Amino acid sequence: MAPRRPTGAGAFPKAVATPAPNPPDPASLYAALDLGTNSCRMLIAQPKGSQFHVVDSFSKSVQLGTGLEASGRLSRASISRTVQALRICRSKLDKHSVSHMRLVATEACRRAVNARDFISLVRRETGLSLEIIQPEEEARLAVVSCAPLVSTKTEQLLVVDIGGGSTELVWIDLTAVPRAERPRAIMRLHAGFHPKDSPFPAARVVDWISVPLGVATLKEQFDDVEDDSARFALMSWFFEENLADFSPYSEVQATEGFQIIGTSGTVTTVAASHLGLRRYDRTKVDGLRMTSAQIDRVIRDYLSLGPVGRRSDPRIGRDRHALIMSGAAILQALMRIWPTDRMSVADRGLREGLLYAQMSADGVLEDGPF
Questions:
Q1: What is the pLDDT along the chain (370 residues), one digit of tens a residue?
Q2: Strand boundaries in the chain, DSSP class E
Q3: What total number of domains does the chain contain?
Q4: Domain presence at residue 75
Q5: Nearest-CA neighbor of 111 among 64, 176, 148, 151?
Q6: What distance in Å separates the CA atoms of residue 287 and residue 347, rounded to the nearest whole number?
Q7: Among candidate residues 133, 150, 174, the one where a domain is terminated
Q8: Total-model pTM
Q9: Same structural domain, 118 and 212
């Protein structure tokens, strides 16, 4: 006869039993969705001090703007890919019972003649209401997202957001703001580039521009150029030509106290390549400062690899290889024009700006140091 098993045998002792983590209160959750020309990305987060804690995320290359340059329309295939991605986003929002959210679309939907039909289709198919935002708000939110990376020594700040369909540049004068207040002054720009009646020292937006050239649209402009190096040089020259109306473009600026912050997949990919990361690590990339020489070295390496080599390079990734050189052309033009030999790398952008703006407007962020 087999011995009887004592009651409770095999159970974890109470001292080492691991309780299931308490799910966050849905009322405290915020969501931000950014539907761009190339990617669909979403963050779900809850406030935590002066920052936020990410609860869930989603990112997928949907190539919504494929063919837009030639036809002026969003294609059926692009729409189908995007709707499938948005269904996943909807399921995540439902799973977490998120009630505070902003879901925005940018350059591809601003330019497409059938954008309104697309927005209606998305609402019917997924229940999500996308909002097409204007370039100024896109630029402003990109700036807000970078507030934690602004040095207290910075007097002149250039924030660059290289997107799929457009590139936003914002030049900000911080000389009138006390050093310790400079990151918070950038955060307060969520209310507008020219806030009125503010009791705080204000960051002054000298100028901003939205260039209708991003990694996807610039690539399409020069797809007919077969030589890899010639195509790269032409893209960089063409992007610089489109900056002629940006007022700080031709002015001589002091190098001291000048900071460029770059936010985009291009900038983070170049940073990851510089670090030799075979697996991307945000903690090593976000906030990294790269010199012009380091950036140039990575770009020269990309050119020497050629299209085939870039396709198989794990540092670049399969989703990025086709667009990395158009992004690198924009990046090289920017570093050539302005008086600095360093760029701060930001693994953050429109989604983070949307979250900060919502949380700040609701007063749920602490007014502490970043």
A1: 555 555 555 544 444 444 445 667 767 899 999 999 999 999 999 998 888 999 999 999 999 999 898 899 999 999 999 999 999 999 999 999 998 999 999 999 999 999 999 999 999 999 999 999 999 999 999 999 999 899 999 999 999 999 999 999 999 999 999 998 898 889 888 878 876 666 677 889 999 999 999 999 999 999 999 999 999 999 999 999 998 888 776 665 656 788 999 998 999 999 999 999 988 899 999 999 999 999 999 999 999 999 999 998 888 877 788 899 999 999 999 988 886 788 999 998 899 999 999 998 888 887 655 4
A2: 30-35, 39-48, 51-61, 100-105, 131-132, 156-162, 167-173, 204-211, 258-263, 289-291, 342-346
A3: 2
A4: yes
A5: 64
A6: 8
A7: 133
A8: 0.84
A9: no
Same domain, 50 and 183: no
Domain boundaries, position 261 = 138-351
Q: Which of 56, 248, 34 is nearest to 145 (CA)?
A: 34
Cα–Cα dist 290/296, whole Å: 10
CA distances from 358 to 184, 268, 334 (A): 16, 25, 31
Indicate the residue type of 134: Q
- Say if residue 64 is in the same domain as residue 210: no
